[in-house]
Write a structure and sequence with these properties.
globular; mainly alpha
Length: 283
């Protein structure tokens, strides 16, 4: 007998719901039905699961995107946040849904709560990675967030700028001095977005960031995985365009292949491959 997803939700057994949905993706609709529950914890739990399922199986979740987009207007701040997260993980796969979500997400950049602005920025960055024209108008707003926000907000804004800049580097090349300035006072726990954005610029304009390579290398020994993985990614981007600039970083990055953090390990493998290191693809 199939487990009753509605009852599992009432019992807050979201791990069991996740297992049931991954085993039978035809049950995603039952997960979506939980969004109509009055209990905020149940709705948030359902949104968090939809975020993961949607990222892994976007085509199975696509038809429910309209429900998620509508929740960006919900009165509950945390539902807005969870909906934005889910849309960011799924909406970038489909241009029609991204176009429908983008105006609402842009409006949330002006929300009174920083947590909402952060999640909206992340989602818009993901959309911008795939569909730049939908978000190019928010680049100035994201740049202002680098000055006006708290550490976490700057992290979100800079990461979004990096995602947009990967495929549209001309939109962020001019903010290189601002990113360097932000990096100077960013804590290691919240500097990953800036490092990512610097790497996006370095992918296309390696000589512009050549002087920052020693600074990026310092983060390879950080105690914060978020800083490490983004520094590795940045160096990999720079190295893919000009391997000579990052050759001194290669031994340090190789050591990270044994790191216990899966994201750090994966980024190290990808970066070394982009730098042209032989045999990395077989690791």
């Amino acid at each position: 007998m199939k487990p009753d997803i509605s009852q599992l939700a009432k019992d807050r057994r979201f791990g069991d719901i996740e297992k049931a949905v991954y085993e039978d993706r035809s049950r995603i609709g039952e997960l979506v039905d939980l969004l109509s529950e009055k209990n905020g914890d149940v709705r948030s739990g359902a949104l968090n699961l939809l975020s993961r399922v949607g990222f892994d199986y976007p085509n199975d979740t696509r038809k429910y995107l309209g429900r998620l987009i509508a929740l960006l207007d919900d009165e509950d701040m945390f539902i807005k946040i969870d909906a934005a997260n889910a849309i960011g993980n799924l909406g970038f796969s489909f241009q029609d849904s991204a176009a429908a979500a983008a105006p609402k997400l842009k409006a949330l950049l002006e929300h009174g709560q920083s947590l909402v602005r952060q999640e909206a920025a992340y989602a818009l960055g993901n959309i911008g990675f795939s569909f730049t024209d939908l978000v190019r108008d928010i680049v100035p707003r994201l740049v202002r967030m680098l000055d006006q926000g708290d550490d976490d907000e700057r992290e979100a804004a800079s990461h979004a700028l990096g995602k947009i800049g990967i495929n549209a580097p001309e939109l962020i090349r001019g903010i290189l001095p601002k990113l360097v300035e932000v990096l100077e006072f960013s804590k290691e726990a919240t500097c990953g977005g800036v490092l990512f954005a610097l790497g996006a610029i370095g992918l296309h304009y390696p000589d512009a960031v050549a002087g920052l390579v020693p600074r990026l290398m310092q983060y390879l020994e950080s105690g914060h995985p978020n800083a490490v993985k983004n520094a590795v990614a940045a160096l990999g981007n720079i190295g893919s365009s000009n391997p000579e600039l990052v050759k001194q970083a290669i031994p340090k990055i190789k050591k990270l292949l044994d790191n216990t953090d899966i994201d750090v390990k994966m980024n190290a493998k990808v970066a070394l491959g982009r730098m042209g290191e032989p045999g990395v693809a077989d690791l």
